[in-house]
Amino acid sequence: MTTLVLTLAGAVLIGATLGLLGGGGSILAVPLLVYVADLPAKEAIATSLLVVGVTSAVAVLPHARANRVRWRTGLIFGVAGMTGAYAGGRLAEFVPAGVLLTGFALMMLATAVAMLRGKPVEGHPVPHELPMLRVVGDGVVVGLVTGLVGAGGGFLVVPALALLGGLPMPVAVGTSLVVIAMKSFAGLAGYLSSVQIHWGLAAGITAAAVVGSLLGGRLAGRIPADLLRRGFGWFVVVMGVFVLAQQLPPVWGLAVGPLAVAGTVTMAVWGRRRRGHSGQQRLGQPVRRHVRTGVER
């Protein structure tokens, strides 16, 4: 009973993370199902794809009502991501699991740095829908990476839409849920040919995650975009360090974890200070020109 309660509580957290941040569901779901629900690894991955797929589809609804979804961008990105994910899944069988997970963790930390250093996207003119070639290219690359490491990809989709595509963070979150749902269902279809799912347990976890996603979706529209972006970045830092530490011997894991956090923090802070300094210079120049013009008159 305790295990079931903890599993359902974790499922609510998974849903809230998806609804609020537009990603992180698979990163949380697989460890929850393996270490708490005690499912075999492949069954846990298949179940997580079901949970994340359904939850993402439901979590889109509050974002759609608030006009925080770019449907054309999301659908094209999703189809391209499914193609890349299939190719990545075929390649994954030739790569050792430890290498995949280590690469996964490093990619998460690089993504976190980009999110923490990235310029806020609010206030810049953004086309209603992104150019098709850019969406397809980003979708294939993100799909390839997520197909290799076996995750839903929100931790990459959100930065791709926000930083590369220039979408406002709340819109990137809402649109990413469309992409995650599509890729999760595609991955689930592949797993069902060889893996049996405990449907009763999966239904209970999915229902709890859906409740959490609706709560997260309602909160997403009330949190400033820059704060949401930074919160997502720190979330990815924590999960990336955890995954990286799991792939190393205990002694190395204890040493590398703090070093990875310190390195990420240093790069993020340095980037923000550098951007702030350049911003001050840009703001100062027109003021000085205005003063000199006034004196000449």
Structure notes:
82% of the residues lie in helices and 0% in strands. The chain is an all-alpha fold. Helix 1 crosses helix 8 (169-191), helix 7 runs antiparallel to helix 8 and helix 10 runs antiparallel to helix 11 (250-296).
Features:
297 residues, 11 helices, 82% helix, 0% strand, disordered C terminus
Number of helices: 11
- Helix-strand makeup class: mainly alpha
Termini separation (Å)?
82 Å
How much helix is in the residues? over 70%
Rg value: 20 Å
Order of helices and strands: HHHHHHHHHHH
Strand content: under 5%
For the largest beta-sheet, the strand count, sense and barrel status come to: none
Silhouette: globular
Number of strands: 0
Low-confidence stretches: 120-126, 278-297
User: Mean pLDDT, rounded to whole units?
Assistant: 74
What's the gist of this structure?
By secondary structure, the protein is mostly helical.
Any chance you could write out the topology, listing elements then pairs?
Blueprint: H1 2-21, H2 25-36, H3 41-65, H4 71-92, H5 97-117, H6 132-149, H7 154-164, H8 169-191, H9 199-220, H10 225-246, H11 250-296
